[in-house]
Amino acid sequence: xxxxxxxxxxxxxxxxxxxxxxxxxxxxxxxxxxxxxxxxxxxxxxxxxxxxxxxxxxxxxxxxxxxxxxxxxxxxxxxxxxxxxxxxxxxxxxxxxxxxxxxxxxxxxxxxxxxxxxxxxxxxxxxxxxxxxxxxxxxxxxxxxxxxxxxxxxxxxxxxxxxxxxxxxxxxxxxxxxxxxxxxxxxxxxxxxxxxxxxxxxxxxxxxxxxxxxxxxxxxxxxxxxxxxxxxxxxxxxxxxxxxxxxxxxxxxxxxxxxxxxxxxxxxxxxxxxxxxxxxxxxxxxxxxxxxxxxxxxxxxxxxxxxxxxxxxxxxxxxxxxxxxxxxxxxxxxxxxxxxxxxxxxxxxxxxxxxxxxxxxxxxxxxxxxxxxxxxxxxxxxxxxxxxxxxxxxxxxxxxxxxxxxxxxxxxxxxxxxxxxxxxxxxxxxxxxxxxxxxxxxxxxxxxxxxxxxxxxxxxxxxxxxxxxxxxxxxxxxxxxxxxxxxxxxxxxxxxxxxxxxxxxxxxxxxxxxxxxxxxxxxxxxxxxxxxxxxxxxxxxxxxxxxxxxxxxxxxxxxxxxxxxxxxxxxxxxxxxxxxxxxxxxxxxxxxxxxxxxxxxxxxxxxxxxxxxxxxxxxxxxxxxxxxxxxxxxxxxxxxxxxxxxxxxxxxxxxxxxxx
Length: 660
Fold this sequence. Notes:
By secondary structure, the chain is α/β, with parallel strands linked by helices. The chain has helices at residues 2-24, 32-48, 52-74, 76-83, 86-105, 112-128, 147-154, 164-184, 190-206, 225-242, 246-260, 266-283, 290-322, 338-349, 356-371, 380-397, 402-431, 435-438, 444-467, 472-494, 509-522, 541-549, 595-605, 617-623, and strands spanning 328-331, 334-337, 373-375, 378-379, 530-535, 553-554, 557-558, 573-574, 578-580, 590-592, 609-614, 640-645, 650-655.
């Protein structure tokens, strides 16, 4: 049923795009992304009003009604002719292929961030028909943006249960809509459309830094980095395609608001896209007229207000629904507002009050573009050079006059954006990351790789636009697109041989085991129950997995070593924990704890249950007297669920165990 309803929504998306294309006399490939963006915004507003499920059904009915209206007005034959667009056909075929591949292979989430936020938020939204800040259950990032979670919801709101593989397919439908949009810039011919589409689809494989022997997460990830890159590039391509027409600007506005709702930094991506569009509009024609410049500034300000409004509205909703202030970042137990980060970062960048941490991170960031790999051919400087080459080819191949000027000014905006993102991530490392993570530039390739992907995708769109001409230079442009596709294909061949098409199922062994173990106790739990997991030796993977699978709230352990004595300064919450008689190393998941210390912790924490998943000799010897059932060494076929009673002094078996 999940596949059936996913394909129903895909058909509704395709038909709605076709109907709008007929009404606006446009290529339907241009409209798939704005229609998707509009669907997400509609669901978002419905969810804020507490009407998420009715909003989804209304959207589906609206797409059906719009299709019938267009068919009655122009006739089914006209819609069929409109559907023969090469780029639109590639969108429909590629999206269908992703849905079928994932339905057969049924992959699962594997990345930690998918369990702390992205995947868990999708699951909570789909299962409870609520925006995730208001949903019940464990979630680390309740203040995060909902854009991609609502994409996952859109494609399976009518299906029973929740399927992780459908989230991957839904996300990839967005990416195929962007690829088709870029391909439509190449004109109505199949050759240019196929080459551009291939280049865009292959681009994420090229712009990724892989570890030897690692499996690829490209197109099989519930995280938002690739979505940021694609929707940003798609927004730029959309503007290049539709220009300044009212309908085109409305589509761009929808896309930019969707971009803002993908991730916190989506606000910055959207503002950079506005800058690119404003520069192309203001200076894309000669002579430069003050009236045109003022109009461009006015439209840019209006777009910025819409973008900021969406961001602020979500912040207000999050505060009301969960009490979380999402307009702050922080590290090592402290948080600061975005304004403090921006103003403080700019001051330190100018040398005012510069801290030792800022100086150290700045030195690392200055080296990173030349040393840290973000693509299969090397560091960010290589990726930037490729984007510059594409932009130069697009400018040279574009028809003289306004078309060439638009390419040049849009390219200038992209480079300003790249510099702004570099500065912004410098500030994030200083203010948002713990020292040990900041000095490692944690996830630099992931964050800046997304920026380079979006920039290169927009550059490919510019080059594809030059292919639409019929003069001699158009042939050179086609050659350039062909070369880009070939380069991406070669890099794909050099990359990991394991991707979404043949992902090793052995990676899901632990996931499947914990799914079954959690199911054995879920019937005894409520979403508001707090469950402390005992899993000796865990590297927090099983803690995250249980937090995702349990129909309850997984509780924090404690990282301090002073429970049970008079020193209280070392008590702090942690995620998973391993209880030890003494520290063996500096591992943050190991906690010095005796029986009295655990009881004291439980008295203060007021948790409801303890789930015993995996034990060791120390736990059995030291803590077994607290439990009213035998505690086995290692693990059992089912976990042991105990009710915490008498303030943690006694644990009563509720479910689980070999004989339970």
